[in-house]
Specification:
Number of strands: 25
Shape: elongated
Oligomer: single chain
Strand content: 15-25%
Structural class: alpha+beta
Distance between the termini: 63 Å
């Protein structure tokens, strides 16, 4: 349904349509007004087959209705409308087939209430002799509400209907909408129309001509909308396997797809053979015939995408000309269905990649919630925005949000590569600015058309923001590559964007490249950090700064007790534009941190007695924490080895930190050295590297991260 604004003219819609029809009305057939309409005689003769060419073009008409949906004026003098009992004082819905009355009545009353037009509905009207006329029906509100409605009718001539149908079918890349448009167009030739697609087509998988004998059909479209008998296959249902097999065999005799016609109910029951299959496929209890037209892609061998079925009463058999029209329409539609299948396949692939990038739970030290809403462009339905959060092995949490230029599979491939690379580098202990330097080089490399991965696609200008949260010190280290500044809400309720230096983004030209800064700030427990992409704050009516201020105001209303995921959805629904032009992404992180009694830090001089002092302090703390004896012994030995290595290979003071978490005990030893500890195999008499072998054997995992003053070696032991 399309909605159009109410005409601004003071003339009624009926008068406007009637004036537009003037040159099509036969001589002596002026529009009937309210006074003379009651005296007007309606002829009920069948439409002749040999109308003159000029009369064939007389396909326009109009009917005025009051608020009770009764006919008050009528302009249906064109010969094609002969036989319609559109007398003044009768209900308009009396012209409809019984099963269409509820739907059309609902549409008529909707226009009365909302004053929004309902345009171009394919509809069947009943003549007095039992025949039917297919029209394009539009419902227009009158200039004043008390004047009711005007219903304009366009009789669907053959070529006009084929053109209108193909135009409507080719407007969407959604496979369900494409199938529905085809079914609605097919309704012009029957009482019920259905489109059943191969499951591989419906799911976006590849299809070939080699597996058509094992075709599995799913109902993709069904019209009209009505209450169906029990057991009948409706929208989204899979056809019984024997029904799929019968239809496949019917349209594929000798591997040559062709239209088949089963003329009446007796023949239908004989072909389907099973009462269960009859209940599943036959839409009405009365006698019915069906035409089955395959959706075929030309090729060697041809590929059948599915079957279109048109059902009608047995007393209205299909004429050869009608079957040719049906085949022409379905043939024109097949390539649209295949385009929608390819789009569905790409959409599914990108969604699978997007799900892999969804944030994980933040654990006990941080709460995470995210919302991603694609702008649903025709290219794939998913764009290049990405958001991720994950715990690092050393107890910190990484928050990453990025915006890759463009949409579709090329943008998604770049998005996935950058996200995985960022995760790997952060897990290896690199700082946010160092990670962005690597991502900058990656984007520059991907822009090389010879690389093959993104030939014809440029990721230059992509943006990224990385934040690392330390739950012990409650510090956040943040670096941005051209991304919009995150919004921080402190526990006292103050909200605003962080002050970051502007940056040109990833992959900028050499002359524009700037170093990536690291912005460090304190986020006390209870703080809320919002990372997002520009689709959330961009509004044509506002500046970007005003959009960010609106986001800060919305995030500041999130109460500490609110469920974070629900709060994130509320923020997006409040700020996101009604018509999204870009993807919308939001990541909310509520800082929790460790409890004060779950961490301890000591600073020791780099002297020979440092290992013994560290061992004694750790042993005493673990006894206070009431850990097991074997755990205390292992952790004391572990700390002793790490401090010994720091004394031997580094200078300056040594920092020892012990953290108690749900997973176990985490030990960190920091020094001012810049050498990287490496685990290696050694001879029995080789003393070098023996300490790291002990560390490796005692821990569940260990690693190194770099700081501005040196390095930190961390190790985790299960409790």
């Amino acid at each position: 349904m399309d909605s159009t604004p109410v005409p601004s003219s003071s003339s009624s819609a009926f008068d406007l349509v009637s004036r537009a029809l003037g040159r099509y009305i036969p001589r002596g057939g002026a529009a009937a007004g309210p006074a003379d309409a009651q005296e007007r005689r309606i002829t009920h003769q069948p439409v002749p087959d040999d109308l003159a060419a000029g009369q064939r073009e007389q396909i326009l008409g109009a009917v005025a209705l009051n608020q009770d949906l009764m006919i008050t004026r009528c302009n249906l003098d064109a010969p094609v409308f002969a036989g319609l009992d559109a007398a003044v004082g009768k209900l308009f819905v009396d012209l409809l087939p019984p099963w269409d009355v509820p739907t059309v009545t609902r549409r008529l009353r909707q226009v009365v209430e909302t004053r929004e037009a309902h345009v171009a509905r394919i509809q069947r009207l009943r003549r007095r002799d039992g025949s039917e006329l297919v029209v394009s029906l539009s419902i227009l509100p009158a200039a004043a509400p008390e004047e009711g409605l005007t219903v304009s009718l366009i009789a669907m001539a053959r070529r006009l209907h084929l053109y209108a149908a193909e135009t409507a079918i080719g407007t969407s890349l959604d496979i369900g909408e494409t199938a529905q448009s085809l079914a609605e167009s097919l309704l012009a030739w029957g009482d019920v129309a259905a489109v059943d697609l191969d499951y591989a087509v419906w799911s976006g998988e590849g299809v070939t001509g080699q597996v058509q004998r094992r075709i599995r059909l799913r109902r993709a479209a069904l019209v009209p909308d009505r209450a169906w008998p029990e057991g009948y296959i409706t929208l989204g249902d899979d056809l019984p396997s024997d029904a799929s097999r019968l239809l496949a065999q019917a349209v594929l005799p000798n591997d040559a797809p062709q239209t088949i016609v089963i003329p009446d109910r007796e023949a239908v029951e004989r072909v389907l053979a099973s009462p269960r299959v009859v209940r599943a496929l036959v839409p009405v209890d009365r006698s019915a015939g069906v035409a089955c037209i395959p959706l075929v892609l030309d090729g060697v061998p041809p590929v059948v995408l599915g079957v279109a079925e048109v059902w009608r009463r047995a007393d209205c058999p299909f004429r050869d000309s009608e079957l040719l029209d049906l085949q022409e329409l379905v043939a024109r539609t097949a390539h649209h269905v295949d385009l929608a299948r390819q789009h569905q396949r790409e959409h599914t692939q990108v969604l699978a990649l997007q799900r892999r990038l969804l944030p994980r739970s933040g654990g006990d030290t941080i709460a995470i919630a995210s919302v991603y809403e694609p702008a649903t462009p025709d290219s794939a339905g998913v764009g290049g925005d990405w958001v991720n959060s994950f715990p690092l092995p050393d107890g910190r949490t990484a928050l990453v949000v990025g915006d890759v230029v463009g949409h579709g599979l090329g943008a998604a491939a770049t998005m996935g590569q950058l996200s995985m690379e960022a995760r790997a580098l952060l897990s290896a202990g690199l700082a946010p600015d160092e990670v962005l330097e690597h991502l900058d080089e990656t984007v520059t490399m991907l822009d090389d058309a010879e690389s093959g991965l993104t030939a014809g696609y440029s990721a230059l200008g992509s943006t990224c923001c990385i934040a690392l949260y330390d739950p012990v010190s409650h510090h956040v280290a943040l670096s941005s590559a051209g991304h919009l500044p995150p919004v921080l809400v402190t526990p006292d309720g103050h909200a605003g964007p962080l002050a970051l230096r502007p940056h040109p983004g990833l992959g900028a030209e050499f002359a524009l490249r700037e170093p990536f800064d690291v912005h460090t700030f304190v986020a006390p427990p209870g703080s809320l950090l919002a990372l997002y992409t520009d689709g959330l704050v961009e509004d044509p009516a506002l500046s970007i700064d005003e959009g960010i201020d609106r986001l800060a105001d919305a995030v500041s209303t999130v109460h500490p007790w609110d469920a974070l995921q629900q709060a994130a959805r509320h923020v997006v629904s409040t700020l996101a534009p009604a018509r999204q032009r870009d993807d919308v992404t939001l990541l909310l992180a509520r800082m929790i941190g460790y409890r004060e009694g779950d961490t301890a830090t000591w600073r020791l001089p780099a002297r020979l007695d440092a290992p013994a002092r560290a061992r004694a302090q750790v042993f005493a703390l673990l006894r206070q924490w009431r850990t097991r004896d074997d755990t205390r012994d292992e952790m004391a030995l572990l700390v002793s080895e790490l401090v010994t290595n720091a004394v031997r290979f580094a200078t300056g003071p040594i920092t020892v930190r012990l953290i108690r978490s749900g997973a176990g005990l985490l030990c960190e030893v920091g020094d001012t050295g810049n050498g990287r500890p490496r685990l290696k195999r050694g001879d029995l008499l080789d003393d070098s590297g023996r300490g790291l072998s002990v560390v490796h054997g005692l821990t569940t995992r260990w690693g190194v991260r770099w700081t501005d003053t040196g390095k930190v070696v961390w190790a985790e032991v299960g409790r």
